[in-house]
Amino acid sequence: MAERVLRGVAAAAGLALGPVWVHQGDAPAPAASSAAGDPGAERRRFQEAVAAVDRDLERLQAGADPQAREILGAHRLMLADPELHNLVEAGIARGLGAEAAVQEATEQLAALLAGLDDPYLRERAADVRDVGRRLVAALAGRAVGLRLEAPAVVVARDLAPTDTIGVDRRLLLGIVTEQGGPTSHTAILARSWGIPAVVGVPGVLEQVQDGMTVAVDGDAGAVVLEPAPETVQRLEERLRAQAEARAREQAEAGLPAETPDGRRVELAGNAKVPGDVAAAVERGAEAIGLLRSEFLFMGRSAPPDEEEQYQAYAEALRLAGGRRVIIRTLDIGGDKGVPYLGLPREENPFLGVRALRLCFRRPDLFQTQLRALLRAGVHGRLAVMFPMVSTLDDLRQARAALEEARAALAAAGIPHALAPEVGIMIEVPSAALIAHHLAREVDFFSIGTNDLVQYTLAVDRGHPELTGLYQPSHPAVLRLIDEVVRAAHGAGKWVGVCGEMAGDPLGALLLLGLGVDELSMSPPALPAVRRLVRAVPFREAEALARQALACSTAAEVEALVRPVLERVAAG
Ligand code: PEP
Ligand code: MG
């Protein structure tokens, strides 16, 4: 057959080439096996299956990486969900066998989730089905999951979240699924494992068989079936280049980010959930420069309580293995909605009751978070960071709230961090301009360029028609950053950047030259920025930044910096 190219969603970067291994999933239990006898016996079989699956998940959890552990933990919670138990028991009471009752109940719950607006919750339908599938398999005495024996590209309708757990990763070359989106577990796991994946490829299962050669292009979102010899040759060259780049990144991950003339900067990773901390450390992050705690509050129906938050923050600190973890307090509002808080609609959410402003109005939420943070602080090197500070009063009020939480823990004799570092984000122009006042009352600054750019240039950061006007290298932005760096250093404090600009080579070079001490970015950006810092003398970056400050447009700044980046890229 001739070469064919199928398109899907690029879910995890990289290229893979190898034989197909079709994952059929586990066939549903035949309806006949569900014709039940005694409801009491079926109920017992169901309870035994629940216990067996829970033991199985617990065993898998013990050997899994942090991200997989989280997924398995969520499955164990679903397994214990009273709603699931009620539905299954109702099915059994109507005369169904345990298998059919489980299938019906999980399908009903999954359909409910699949019909929701929130894409994150919609994807959770796959988790419910996965739990159901495990239960049915346990009732039939079968095992579940991928059992690869040789290197292969797995093609499946949709991989169940736990299929990939426990698999020998060295044998899993790539993943292609018919269903699933960019936030599905398959996509999330593939990204964190660095396995190329394309999801949402309609009809792929009908066109492949076991052993067929296939290429997965996780950058372009393409799957090539039976590639022609010339294509294979081209792909093999790309694979060699990819392997070389990975080996180089691996070898460099432990190297200090130090310029040839001896200026050291700290390279840190940004994280959304505790599991991201491990991925950042693997890529050589020396710290976590931003853990966006609001993600713990999203995609659910009620806020996490103090205990759940404590566990999550403690996990992040433990995974960081003694490295500093800057946990930012809640930054809800703006583009990050949390429906269950019932916040009123605002005309201008980015200028409204966002972040600290919301926390000051909701001391219940704020105190719970601050207590959890301080308690977790005994497990590692915690730094607390407040977002969206726009006045000195914001900072003082936030610090007072932290002190209130600390005093309450002390009074109750609950162990907690006594004096974590306390910093603020500089992401509002007013804060940048009074940074010399703010600097006296903090341990560090972290510049949030994502917001600083939008507030400085009056350009909504997510506006699809204004992307050209959203210019991190605009001289107005650079001047504010320069002001902040001088203010911090003048007060003997360190200053980092945790906005996207830090992970973009052009931005990173300017920030290095402006004298920033730490750059925190999404982990995949770390290798390129490390290479850049190690290649450009600080003297040169500094001179470049001075010239950039004197420019009148972003285009001028970029024209100044590009040649240096090209020189570095050329090696
Ligand atoms: C920023 O504004 O640069 C930042 C890091 O915060 P967020 O993107 O979460 O608003
Ligand atoms: Mg921000």
What's the gist of this structure?
The longest helix is centred in the N-terminal third of the chain and has 25 residues, at 39-63. It contains 22 helices and 16 strands.
Task: Write structural notes for this entry.
By secondary structure, the protein is of the alpha/beta class. The chain has four domains: 126 residues, Glucose Oxidase, domain 1, CATH 3.50.30; 102 residues, Orthogonal Bundle (Enzyme I, Chain A, domain 2), CATH 1.10.274.10; 131 residues, TIM Barrel (Alpha-Beta Barrel); 145 residues, TIM Barrel. The strands form two sheets. It has an eight-stranded mixed β-sheet with strand order 1-8-7-3-4-5-6-2. It has an eight-stranded parallel barrel with strand order 9-10-11-12-13-14-15-16, surrounded by six helices. Helix 3 packs across helix 4 and helix 10 packs parallel to helix 11. The longest helix is centred in the first third of the chain and has 25 residues. The protein is globular and about 80 Å long. 45% of the residues are buried. The site of phosphoenolpyruvate (PEP) has 10 residues, from strand 10 and helix 17.
